[in-house]
Amino acid sequence: MEVASLQTILLFISFISFYVYIFLLRRKANKTATHGFKSYPLVGTLPDFLLNRHRFLDWTTAILSRCPTNTAVFRRPGKIHGVITANPQIVEHMLKSNFDNFPKGVRFRTLLEDFLGEGIFNSDGDLWKIQRKTASYEFNTKSLRNFVMENVAFELKTRLIPILENSARNDTVLDFQDILERFAFDNICKVAFNVDPGCLGGDGTVGGEFMRAFEDAANLSSGRFMYALPSSFIIKKFLNLGSEKKLRKSIAKVHEFADKIIRTRMEERSEKKDEDLLSRFIANTENSAEFLRDIVISFILAGRDTTSSALSWFFWLLSSKPEVELKILQELENIRLQNGKTIGDTYSFDELREMHYLQASITEAMRLYPPVPIDTKACNKDDILPDGTFIGKNWFISYLTFAMGRMESVWGKDCCEYKPERWIENGIWKQESPFKYPVFHAGPRMCLGKDMAFIQMKSIAASVLERFGMDVVMEKGKSPEYLLSLTLRMKGGLPVKVKERIV
Ligand code: HEM
């Protein structure tokens, strides 16, 4: 037999064997395993993971919705065992009742260390506590609220609205996700470090290099969680190959930007005191320049990628729900009439608080598209979760906020529908348990920027919607693809055509 045909036959046999192997593993994986405790489905063998990692959120959502307690065990090579859950009781257990047993842990911290260092998102114990305490003072002040209001109003009036006016006049297509990221980036830099990078200045393309480097660093760092062999990134990193080479370069650019902020601010240390978040950290002379850089990067991540993600999905959802848009516009008109305002005037903090329906519409968008769709912790010592599932020492545990928004057991039969009304009672926006809706996390590590985020998101949504109509330039009825980075972004952005409303 000729060598070429022998090769073809061998190739064919390997191909068939691979698929038989996957089939058998899948059958095995779908059986139930018991460990002396309550039984639970076992998922996530290597082939399963490889076949589904590009659609990780949909895959895990489907698995969890089939599990009796919306909880499953996940196994991967390299002794990676863990639990994934969409069960509110388990979320409460890990984030609050048994908080000390579920830190971020070494695995999580190692994967993100190059990008986030020891910043608040990537630290545990005393290092986390001190950052949380220092930052909390700043987030609790009334002056911060006013500062955020002033800065949002400035960014809206002088940058965002003119860009939209210009686009409407020239009938161009805008990537609205990119615009929202630039807005949020300018805003967080001003509020946290008193620096205005002016990324949304001009035609909205300034500062592109840093923005791209930050985006790459976040995408590539989160990509490390998706390696088939979890520690293989170490070899790639050591050899400076492929994605690790790119990551190194993008992190260097991010560091350059953050270092510049620190240098400038340290030089000013003696002149100015305590006027923003960074000055509180600089005031402690024990904090090294490197640690300050980690703090800066964590806050940029917190402020830039979350509100822009939430608003991108919100505007996209709204584009197919004219009835929701109309109700928002009616609410805005009522508030304007009551307060003697006209379109284009800045809304005050109290006026923003009156926007219950808008609040509900944004909250509902984040239920289906949470900016932080997965959160992972490590287990310090063996434990039994509230549904009886065993979790071992050093296992990971992830709660999937994305899946939780799509669980019938949590939200009822209409869980997959976008319905702001589910958040309204007697015309007022009502809160839900943060364990059922852990979009802002819950317990001692709950998001510090929640109020600030709502001020920003409601101000943007109100100002944009009352002046402009948005046509999303995408195939009708097709959902945008998501990009699973550290936050949930839209793959390819959100292309829109803007039209000025006739009033
Ligand atoms: C829609 C907007 C936002 C959402 C959905 C959101 C969500 C979250 C989530 C899920 C966490 C927990 C992350 C983890 O521990 O792994 C978190 C933590 C945090 N967020 Fe937000 N966030 C938002 C906006 C903001 C903003 C604008 C800031 C302001 C800078 C901020 C500051 C923080 C900080 C400092 C933490 C760390 C808390 C800690 O570990 O103690 N967030 N956020």
Structural overview:
Keywords: Heme, Iron, Membrane, Metal-binding, Monooxygenase, Oxidoreductase, Transmembrane, Transmembrane helix. It is a single-pass membrane protein. Its cofactor is heme. Its main location: membrane. Pfam families: p450. The chain is α+β, with helices and mostly antiparallel strands and 503 residues long. It has one domain: Cytochrome P450 (Cytochrome p450, Orthogonal Bundle). 55% of the residues lie in helices and 11% in strands. It contains 19 helices and 15 strands. The strands form five sheets. It has a six-stranded mixed beta sheet with strand order 1-2-3-4-9-6, sandwiched between helices. Helix 5 runs antiparallel to helix 9 and helix 14 runs antiparallel to helix 16. The chain is globular, with a radius of gyration of 24 Å. About 5% of the residues have low confidence. The structure holds protoporphyrin IX containing FE. The site of protoporphyrin IX containing FE (HEM) has 23 residues, from helix 6, helix 13 and helix 19.
**Overall strand count:** 15
Q: What's the architecture in CATH terms?
A: Orthogonal Bundle
Distance between the termini: 81 Å
The residue fraction in helices comes out at 55-70%
Task: Identify the notable features of this structure and list them briefly.
Cyt_P450_sf; membrane; alpha+beta; Cytochrome p450; 503 residues; Cyt_P450; 55% helix; 15 strands; six-stranded mixed beta sheet; transmembrane helix; binds protoporphyrin IX containing FE
Topology of this structure?
Blueprint: H1 3-30, E1 32-33, E2 40-43, H2 46-52, H3 56-66, E3 71-76, E4 80-85, H4 88-97, H5 105-116, H6 125-140, H7 142-170, E5 173-175, H8 176-193, H9 208-223, H10 232-239, H11 242-267, H12 277-282, H13 289-319, H14 322-338, H15 349-353, H16 356-368, E6 374-378, E7 383-384, E8 390-391, E9 396-400, H17 401-404, H18 408-411, E10 424-425, E11 428-429, H19 450-467, E12 468-472, E13 482-484, E14 488-490, E15 495-500
Parallel strand pairs: 2-3, 4-9
Antiparallel strand pairs: 1-2, 3-4, 5-15, 6-9, 7-8, 10-11, 12-15, 13-14
Helix pairs in contact: 5-9, 7-8, 7-19, 8-13, 9-11, 11-13, 13-16, 13-19, 14-16
The protein binds protoporphyrin IX containing FE.
